[in-house]
Amino acid sequence: MTIYSFYIFDRHCNCIYNREFTHLDHANASGVGQVNKNNDSNASKLLFGILYSLKTISAKLIDSESEAETAVANALKSFTIGPYRAHYLESLTRLKFVLVSDDNIDNLQAILWELYSVYYIRNVVHNGLSPIEFKQSDDFKENETVGKISNSGFITETDQFLQSLRFFN
Amino acid sequence: MKVYSIYILNKAGGLIYQNDVNPGLTKLTANDYLVLAGTLHGVHAIASKLSINIDGMESHQESTANANSALLVSGRSQDANNNKSGLQSIETDLFNLYVFQTLTGIKFIIITSPNPGELKKSYDSANEVFKQLYIVYSDYVMKDPFYSLDMPIKSFLFDTKVKEFVT
């Protein structure tokens, strides 16, 4: 069981945080990898495209009114592509949290929720120096590099949290 | 695990068969089903592109060629599911969706009730459904002399047989 990467997309479809973990064979090598290197790469755009389409499909296929006890639309939880499984959580403010793992991990909803409700809220939302919108200017162009979460507190704490999980490696 | 719906897509992403075998899903218009099929086909293609991007896996085209030559050399049947790098399953709160792809690019899609906590198990039972579906498809669609390839399946016998194994 392995966790490969962690993405956050904001409501403007921008990838505002991207963490890729490199897993080496020898011990003590975890924690290496890249932070915010591939926010504008094709991989993150493709991932977002897939998420968006699947989200629409899952909301469309089952009517929310037909299930009286669930007032909200049917939410996408995860999807499997080849050997990978992407776990997905969307907050009410339409922030999208994605964890990519191998296909042995069934459910990471609780982990995603903790990443959002503890680490994101504490280090980004409660942080007065952090922008509300990560889009930098109004004359925002298509392929311009947009804002990212480069807050070291957030990065170290989420890294520590994810690496402490028993299925991280 | 309860099967809600079965879709069959031709290799171009067109919906050629759609059957709501058990109630549970919202009824959509015929046009919406076509859009849905097209979207899934597109997402499947993007997904294979993405998984190549992630780990430089051999492309889908090559793996089809490999599967074909392995079949010719060994003369034995392989795993019928050719869906190795594309979208395989979706799990949501209220349903699960599984995709099966044959060597010739036909996609079988089933939508089932969710089975929380037992993903591997429901994946296996989905594969069992696909196996049955493939057999029935081969017997009652492909062997039908009046069926033309990639066209909508309007076979009463196929309908009956599909209903038989899902209920």
UniProtKB/TrEMBL annotation, chain A:
Principal cellular location given in the protein's record: endoplasmic reticulum
GO biological process: endoplasmic reticulum to Golgi vesicle-mediated transport
Subcellular compartments: Endoplasmic reticulum; Golgi apparatus, cis-Golgi network
Pfam families named in the record: Sybindin
GO CC aspect terms: endoplasmic reticulum; TRAPPI protein complex; TRAPPII protein complex; TRAPPIII protein complex
GO molecular function: guanyl-nucleotide exchange factor activity
Gene3D superfamilies: 3.30.450.70
Leader sequence segment: none
Keywords: Endoplasmic reticulum, ER-Golgi transport, Golgi apparatus, Transport
Protein family according to the UniProt entry: Belongs to the TRAPP small subunits family. BET5 subfamily.
Assembly and binders: Part of the multisubunit transport protein particle (TRAPP) complex.
Database matches in PANTHER family: TRAFFICKING PROTEIN PARTICLE COMPLEX SUBUNIT (PTHR23249), TRAFFICKING PROTEIN PARTICLE COMPLEX SUBUNIT 1 (PTHR23249:SF16)
The name this protein goes by in its record: Trafficking protein particle complex subunit
UniProt lineage: Eukaryota, Fungi, Dikarya, Ascomycota, Saccharomycotina
UniProtKB/TrEMBL annotation, chain B:
Keyword Transport carried by entry: yes
Keyword Endoplasmic reticulum set for record: yes
Gene Ontology MF terms: guanyl-nucleotide exchange factor activity
Domain of life (superkingdom): Eukaryota
CC per GO annotation: endoplasmic reticulum; TRAPPI protein complex; TRAPPII protein complex; TRAPPIII protein complex
UniProt keywords, alphabetically: Endoplasmic reticulum, ER-Golgi transport, Golgi apparatus, Transport
Ranges that cross the membrane: none
Family per similarity comment: Belongs to the TRAPP small subunits family. TRAPPC4 subfamily.
Protein's UniProt name: Trafficking protein particle complex subunit
Lineage: Eukaryota, Fungi, Dikarya, Ascomycota, Saccharomycotina
